[in-house]
Amino acid sequence: MEDFLFDLIDLVQSVADGLLFGTTYAMIGIGFTLIFGVMDKLNMSYAAAAIAGAYSSIAVFAVVPAPAPVVFAIAAVAAGIFGYVIYLLCFRFIPLASPLATLMATVGMLLLIDEIIVHETDGMPQPYPALFDDVMVELGPFGLRGDLMFVFAVSVVSMAVLLYLIYRTRLGIATRAVSQQPVAAQLCGIGLERTNAMTFVITGVLGGVAGAMIGAAVGVLSPLLSIPFTVKGLIVTVIGGLGSIPGAIIAGLLVGAFENMFQFLRGVTERDMYVMLLLFVFLFLRPGGIFSPSAGRD
What we know:
This protein is mainly α. The protein has helices at 2-39, 46-63, 68-92, 99-121, 146-168, 170-180, 182-187, 192-218, 226-240, 245-266, 271-285; strands spanning 126-127, 136-139, 142-145, 220-221.
């Protein structure tokens, strides 16, 4: 009985840690969702650009020492720049009527970013600054890591700012108009290319924050992070419902909690396998995602 109680406490602890870290998955999922909602296309290089932004902040930090918050801000700015470059190279001058061309262009960009990171770091993990990593908040038999609480707080604030931009600013109105009726939006005087470019910059900044928080939570950045976080971001996007920002937030927390739970129950080697099974369950039971559009007559 005592062993069962200890196992239950450890399980709940793992789920709580997963929920805190799941906000990073939610931010990656929001980036995929926003770009898909505006352009009806997937940017497969999004997570790689987020990790590259975090790596860029390390490079700047190596030259000019700075406190951790400044490093995180540099990661966000760098990832925003990467987002704009990706838009120019993979979307701006490729006909939108060729979805496969843009998809393959972003896959190529993903591999290019990954190879540049491997080349510049010799494939070795790099330490990343963190805040409150020596803090542990005790709540009875449970403990909350200070660094994960910081990651959770920064992620929640970033998502709140993004939601404010989307629903309370003129840029947000333009973005939603372009996502719903691009031709009508152009007739109303909204610049399609400018709106698309700003969407990539904003999602890039959000991804940079996610990349920085991933590094801060794990303690290191590794070239092996790009593809796994691309896969996790796509899983979050599909489970939440393509184009749904609230769905991406809930799905990110869900995937984070289930990932840690599976890691506790089955070990780190089987963790990702069960996350994929979670995706298959959603595809079978609710293929449109958590916030799938309701079926009805047009």
